[in-house]
Design brief:
- The N terminus is likely disordered.
- This protein starts with 22 loop residues before the first strand and ends with a strand.
- 27% of the residues lie in helices and 15% in strands.
- The chain folds into three domains: 118 residues, Leucine-rich repeat, LRR (right-handed beta-alpha superhelix), CATH 3.80.10.10; 35 residues, no CATH class; 84 residues, Phosphatidylinositol 3-kinase Catalytic Subunit, Chain A, domain 1 (Ubiquitin-like (UB roll), Roll).
- Helix 3 links the parallel strand 3 and strand 4.
- InterPro entries: Leu-rich_rpt, LRR_dom_sf, Ubiquitin-like_domsf.
Length: 297
Amino acid sequence: MFFIFVGQPTSSSTVQGFDSLRLLNLEDNCLAEWDEILKLSQLKSLEQLYLNKNKLTCIFYPDKNKIQEFLSNHESCEESYFPFQNLRCLLLGSNEINDLASIDSLNTFPKLIDIRFSDNPIADPGRGGLPRFVLIARLAKVEMLNGSEISARERKESEIRYVRLVMSKLLDNPEEINCLHPRFVELKNFYGIEDERPSVGAAGPQKMASGLLSITLKCVASSVGEKLPLTKKLPATTTVGKLKALCESFLKLKSLKLKLFLQEEGSPLPMLLDDEMATLMDMGIGNESTIIVDEES
């Protein structure tokens, strides 16, 4: 294992040599410009790059023009060169990344399967960032996210949930969908997901039935003691406020003021459902989800 720390950026455009270097640790070095990191892109054996605790605001995979710039500055650079060709692990925790383009660019890295994005604004739901299931859906090849393995089941559920979330918000604006959600059409077609909004005529009831979700309610309110989990089928159009009322009825919690959380596989903390007007579809809640029912303190 190698640990290399850098101070001031060098003036050369790329780092050459180090043919056996597989791991490079540049954590906590006040690095703010992704162009400085691109200088490492020709290290052909590099598999792991640690960039936690820096000041990066965005990342991108170099396009053909940027690659040509590298090629023109180094006569020894092979024409077959492409950036970060063996990078498998990229740790970007505790930076300042806050744009969707940075997330989507990770799909372009040829072999990248292990990513850390925790403690960045774009990946912190508490600061308006993306929840884990959206990150999984947008990152097609990733197998490990924020130190937690992505199972086949979690990927499938995350991608289906993501498609439904996008459909609930942007279905009438296909141009915006293609711009903001580059994997949406691919995933929608792959899973054969149709518009689940209710339609008129004879097909209406069947369409509504197809929108029913199996939801497990797990009560953890300390004042009511242990209760067995309860599974109910609910329309995808059920709002969070309505779900609270249903929980009061189903679990006999009439005297409590409730708060609900979505328990997500692989996520260390459940996600608070605090928008009472949002529907299950709006929140991207899919079939066989688990809702934690707690009481306000």
